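Problem 12. The chain below contains 131 residues. Write out its predicted structure in token notation.
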Amino acid sequence: MHQISIIGGLLAASACSIVAIAQVAAPEGRIENWDTVEARDVRDGITIRAVRGDTVSFTRIELDAGALTPDHNHADEQFIYLESGQASGYVGTIEYVLNPGDIMVIPAWAPHNFEALTDTVWYEIHGPGQR
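Solution.
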């Protein structure tokens, strides 16, 4: 009976080894720099630079004073970190004013929009599953 257990254990160990050997390539990281990420003008007064991973995106957004984001929602959760300037907007029916250092957490599917009250720079994280 002990021999059967040992043989079964060897077979299991062999199967695990085969799975580990079958891995084609180890995951690799990468380094990006905002100065080399392509800038895109997406609306009047709004320029973005986006870095995308498999399930999360990290975006730098520059907004001229008075620039507006449209009312919209999406399946992914969103964080906004306001680096400089000031912005106001709605998440659902609640109005917020963002100042430097503020972090806004927007749940998935929550309707939201913003206006830059001054020249503003913020960073967004979307995930998982940014389109």
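Discussion. The two ends are 56 Å apart (CA to CA). Students who got a different answer should revisit the alignment rule from Section 12.3.
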